[in-house]
Design a protein that fits this description.
The protein has one domain (34-129): 60s Ribosomal Protein L30, Chain: A (2-Layer Sandwich). It has two helices and six strands; from the N terminus they run E-E-E-H-E-H-E-E. It has helices spanning 50-66, 88-98, and strands at residues 2-6, 21-25, 28-35, 75-82, 105-110, 121-129. The chain is an alpha+beta fold. A four-stranded mixed β-sheet has the order 3-6-4-5. Strands 1-2 form a two-stranded antiparallel sheet. Helices cover 22% and strands 32% of the residues.
């Protein structure tokens, strides 16, 4: 399996680490929908605290990936759903702790509310597996 990260020469450097496009050669896809900041009992973690919630979402994502022996390097697309624009920078800070240099394509979507009360972030991911 091979991934090629694409940035057209005339495109600007992204404002945050992400890839404009990713071509995948070989491999299969794993779709990971609607990760929210819940613990193993289904309780929301970090009510009102975007850093805690983002960290929980990434830890949940890590647990799912590990079930297939996949790492964050295999993620090619992330979609974040946030309730306020101000939460974007803290979410990027948390993301940067989990991704080192192979940045996925990424999209932020702002919504009035998310799937459950007190949830400040939801995350969808697409990963490739060999």
């Amino acid at each position: 399996m091979e991934t090629i990260r694409i940035r057209p020469k005339h495109f600007p450097v992204p404002v945050a680490p992400f890839s404009y496009a990713i071509k995948v050669i070989g491999g299969s896809f794993m779709f990971i929908p609607n990760q929210i900041p819940v613990d193993s009992r289904g309780q929301i973690v970090g009510k009102g605290d975007i850093l805690s919630q983002a960290t929980q979402v990434y830890e949940n994502l890590k647990a799912i990936l590990s079930e297939r022996n996949v790492t964050f390097e295999n993620i090619v697309k992330l979609t974040w759903y946030l309730t306020t624009r101000e939460n974007w920078k803290p979410v990027v800070e948390v993301r940067n702790k989990y991704f080192k240099d192979k940045w996925p394509a990424a999209t932020f979507v702002l919504l009035d509310r998310l799937s459950r009360e007190d949830v400040l972030i939801e995350l969808n991911a697409i990963a490739i597996i060999e």
